[in-house]
């Protein structure tokens, strides 16, 4: 009987796959490879990364290698072993990986190949979100939050209730206030036109973000290229040059990009667009989760609101719904219950992967007794969600406990696994060389947003809604989105109200 050429090719392909399939070598971690060529276990991982990893952990222990979409990722799930990965500098690299993934996602050319020195300059520019610059950013954010909240939400309804959805609410306020703070506005105290349009485009792009990061060509993703071009056009140098109140971060980055003649204006716009994604892509869902958890827990809401009022009272300030407020950095720092609620919200919603690429074949020392062999090009991955949900570290890990990160009136940093104190116990912002440079600003702006919302507004969930849960579409990439929005209503608070009212 003759075999069809297609069948023959398929059989040959399968034979090659079986023969060339990676085999575990001595010293290497157990291998989880699956039977689908190239994809490996990518589908199982994409369906529910946390459940998949827990299953592998049960079978193979805390360290194992998974074949995922053509790559081999060695997961280290024991947080007591994290320091060995975070410390490892020379053999494990992050930035080369970032330069493979970010440019095609945001639409600029790879930085490390054609632009000598630019990568290091960009990394240095991230310091402009910290130290003295953090104070300037935080102050500017306060003014912009007040501007947007006052005009859109604090004058509505003449004292009556307004209905809305929590995600939309957080998105509309945080997106615009962050944009004005980082990139500047058309004039002092004025807002850009077309923000709603831009937010919608951003959400369209964001829905495709996981596929772009997985290196699916943008041409296969419907209108995503056109949407991205529209977003990038917002940041063309001619436009941006007329904005005022632009942060030092963006001014410095614009100057750096200007020094490279081979970068086109759209490339520069794409670099700025990447910063927009970094600055709101995680912060908006984080605000959603914390506000949602607080609204579901009246005791927590009351305690946090009381803390904000108390901090204000201690500094001689007084809340009045007609007056704008400015909370200083010191005031924000002293809000430990609010900070704990934010940490708890981040613990429950973050699912980032910390990636390092091995630069050579070597033996990675995990602790005094244990090492694992790694091949050049393999990825070492930490998946902190498994730590955030570990009942040995966090009792009843699925519940929101607003004061979990407070002890004796201070921020709690003592967390233990198997009786040993953990160096890393909460990692929504990554670790080591790839740690988020905007983390201090992020926490400050989330605090500002929540304290203003709790001070100025009475809020209530609308009854009869199902609990929302995490949408795993973004697993591995940061703060997860909710699988549905939540209806709530709100109204301006009266000046003399007690926190409980
Ligand atoms: C809740 C809010 C935020 C979370 C959870 C978060 C989380 C992260 C994480 C996990 C990374 C590392 C990515 C990786 O390892 O691949 C990262 C990188 C980064 N984040 Fe954030 N971030 C937040 C807010 C912000 C804000 C407000 C900014 C301000 C502009 C920002 C700027 C950046 C930048 C520029 C990078 C890239 C750093 C690099 O390439 O070395 N982030 N963020």
UniProtKB/TrEMBL annotation:
Molecular function GO terms recorded: heme binding; iron ion binding; oxidoreductase activity, acting on paired donors, with incorporation or reduction of molecular oxygen; steroid hydroxylase activity
What start and end residues bound the annotated signal peptide? Answer: 1-21
Q: Which PANTHER family match?
A: CYTOCHROME P450 7B1, CYTOCHROME P450 FAMILY 7
The answer, when asked if Transmembrane is one of the entry's keywords, is yes
Which parts of the sequence bind heme?
A: 436
- UniProt keyword terms in alphabetical order: Endoplasmic reticulum, Heme, Iron, Lipid metabolism, Membrane, Metal-binding, Oxidoreductase, Signal, Steroid metabolism, Transmembrane, Transmembrane helix
Q: Which GO terms describe its biological process?
A: bile acid biosynthetic process; cholesterol homeostasis
Pfam assignment, any one: p450
Q: Which family does it belong to?
A: Belongs to the cytochrome P450 family.
From the broadest rank down, the organism's phylogenetic lineage runs:
Eukaryota, Metazoa, Chordata, Craniata, Vertebrata
Q: Where does this protein reside within or beyond the cell?
A: Endoplasmic reticulum membrane
Q: What is its main location?
A: endoplasmic reticulum
Pathways per UniProt: Lipid metabolism; bile acid biosynthesis
**What does this protein need as cofactor?**
heme
Q: Which residues cross the membrane?
A: 274-295
Per UniProt, substrate binds at 282
Name the domain of life. Eukaryota
Question: What is the protein's name according to its record?
Answer: Cytochrome P450 7B1
Name a GO CC annotation attached to this entry: endoplasmic reticulum membrane
């Amino acid at each position: 009987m003759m075999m069809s050429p297609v069948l023959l090719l398929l059989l040959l392909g399968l034979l090659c796959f079986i023969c060339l399939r990676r085999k575990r070598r001595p010293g290497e971690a157990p291998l989880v490879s699956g039977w689908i060529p190239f994809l490996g276990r990518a589908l199982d991982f994409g369906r529910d990364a946390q459940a998949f990893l827990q299953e592998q952990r049960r079978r193979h222990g805390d360290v194992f290698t998974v074949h995922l979409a053509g790559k081999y990722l060695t997961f280290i799930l024991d947080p007591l072993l994290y320091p060995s990965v975070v410390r490892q500098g020379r053999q494990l690299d992050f930035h080369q990986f970032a330069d493979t993934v970010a440019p095609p996602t945001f639409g600029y050319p790879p930085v490390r190949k054609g632009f000598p020195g630019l990568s290091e300059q960009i990394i240095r520019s991230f310091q402009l979100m910290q130290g003295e610059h953090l104070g300037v950013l935080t102050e500017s954010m306060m003014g912009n939050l007040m501007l947007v909240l006052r005009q859109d939400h604090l004058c509505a309804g003449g004292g009556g209730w307004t209905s809305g959805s929590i995600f939309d609410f957080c998105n509309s306020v945080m997106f615009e206030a962050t944009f004005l703070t980082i990139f500047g506005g058309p004039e002092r105290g004025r807002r850009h036109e077309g923000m709603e349009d831009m937010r919608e485009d951003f959400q369209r792009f964001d829905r495709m973000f996981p596929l772009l990061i997985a290196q699916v060509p943008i041409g296969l993703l419907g209108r995503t290229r056109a949407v991205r071009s529209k977003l990038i056009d917002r940041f063309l140098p001619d436009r941006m040059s007329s904005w005022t109140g632009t942060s030092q971060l963006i001014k410095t980055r614009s100057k750096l990009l200007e020094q490279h003649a081979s970068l086109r204006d759209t490339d520069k716009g794409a670099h700025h667009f990447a910063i927009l994604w970094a600055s709101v892509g995680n912060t908006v869902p984080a605000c959603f989760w914390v506000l949602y958890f607080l609204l579901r827990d009246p005791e927590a809401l009351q305690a946090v609101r009381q803390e904000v009022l108390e901090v204000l009272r201690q500094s001689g300030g007084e809340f009045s719904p007609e007056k704008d407020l400015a909370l200083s950095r010191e005031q924000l720092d002293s809000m430990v219950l609010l900070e704990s609620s934010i940490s708890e919200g981040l613990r429950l919603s973050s699912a980032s992967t910390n990636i390092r690429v091995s630069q050579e074949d070597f033996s990675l020392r995990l602790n005094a007794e244990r090492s694992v062999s790694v091949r050049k090009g393999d990825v070492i991955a930490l998946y902190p969600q498994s730590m955030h949900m570990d009942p040995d570290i966090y009792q009843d890990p699925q519940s929101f406990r607003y004061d979990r990160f407070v002890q004796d009136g201070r921020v709690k940093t003592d967390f233990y696994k198997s009786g040993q104190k953990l160096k890393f116990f909460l990692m929504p912002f990554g670790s080591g060389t790839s740690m988020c440079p905007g983390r201090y600003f992020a926490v400050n702006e989330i605090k500002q947003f929540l304290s203003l919302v709790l001070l100025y507004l009475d809020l209530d969930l609308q009854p009869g809604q199902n609990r929302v849960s995490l949408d795993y579409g973004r697993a591995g990439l940061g703060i997860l989105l909710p699988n549905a929005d939540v209806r709530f209503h709100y109204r301006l608070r009266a000046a003399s109200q007690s926190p409980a009212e």
